[in-house]
């Protein structure tokens, strides 16, 4: 329990202040635990970063499993848009930490191994989601969808512009699903189309 508390605080710290702010003492303060707690669980910086990457993967896997469940009752583009809205809303700090950690791992082979393992798990879950949504080639669809999600998330957390709305995320997800070769029932967003894309006569 205390270990998870420390890792959650560490991810929040990196998401809000960057990797340079990550020290064992700073995590203790952020987690509101006794001094030395983080060091007791993670003896050095690499161990702490590896633990953070592992928790990040667990959280993302949980979110993707929820997506699998929602995709059985929602159009796929709605399920994907809701996931993106969550990662750019309540979980935005974790999403920002995600890319900070990925860049840190790119220069550290020991950490890169954890990133690769996490990406494989996420890709496997995305493949399941694509297959359940009717993709003709689930593995190819998973690659397209995870690349799309990465692009949207990275663009949003590194931009001073406002976060895309759920409607905008849904349109983008719709296009990505077409590119991924996913087959889904006809959607009912014509009214949204009319509001978002008025004709010249309007």
Automatic annotation (TrEMBL):
Could you tell me which Gene3D superfamilies the record lists for this protein?
Answer: Tetracycline Repressor, domain 2
The HTH tetR-type domain is annotated at: 1-60
Which of UniProt's keywords are assigned here?
DNA-binding, Transcription, Transcription regulation
Q: Which residues bind DNA?
A: 23-42
Cite a single Pfam family from the UniProt record.
Answer: TetR_N
Q: Which GO terms describe its molecular function?
A: DNA-binding transcription factor activity; transcription cis-regulatory region binding
Q: At the top level of its lineage, which domain of life is listed?
A: Bacteria
Give the protein's recorded name.
HTH tetR-type domain-containing protein
Q: Which organism is it from?
A: Longimycelium tulufanense
Lineage of source species: Bacteria, Bacillati, Actinomycetota, Actinomycetes, Pseudonocardiales
């Amino acid at each position: 329990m205390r270990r998870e508390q420390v890792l959650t605080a560490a991810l929040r710290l990196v998401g809000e202040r960057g990797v340079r702010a990550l020290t064992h003492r700073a995590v203790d303060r952020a987690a509101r635990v006794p001094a030395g707690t983080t060091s007791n669980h993670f003896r050095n910086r690499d161990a702490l970063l590896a633990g953070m990457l592992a928790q990040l993967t667990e959280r993302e896997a949980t979110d993707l499993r929820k997506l699998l469940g929602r995709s059985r009752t929602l159009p796929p583009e709605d399920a994907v848009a809701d996931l993106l809205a969550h990662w750019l809303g309540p979980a935005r700090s974790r999403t920002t930490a995600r890319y900070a950690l990925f860049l840190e791992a790119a220069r550290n082979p020991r950490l890169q191994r954890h990133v690769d393992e996490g990406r494989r798990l996420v890709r496997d879950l995305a493949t399941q989601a694509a297959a359940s949504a009717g993709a003709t080639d689930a593995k190819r669809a998973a690659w397209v969808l995870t690349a799309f999600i990465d692009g949207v998330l990275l663009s949003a957390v590194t931009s001073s512009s406002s976060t895309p709305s759920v409607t905008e995320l849904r349109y983008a997800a719709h296009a990505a699903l077409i590119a991924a070769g996913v087959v889904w029932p006809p959607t009912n967003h014509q009214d949204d189309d009319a509001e978002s894309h008025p004709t010249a006569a309007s």
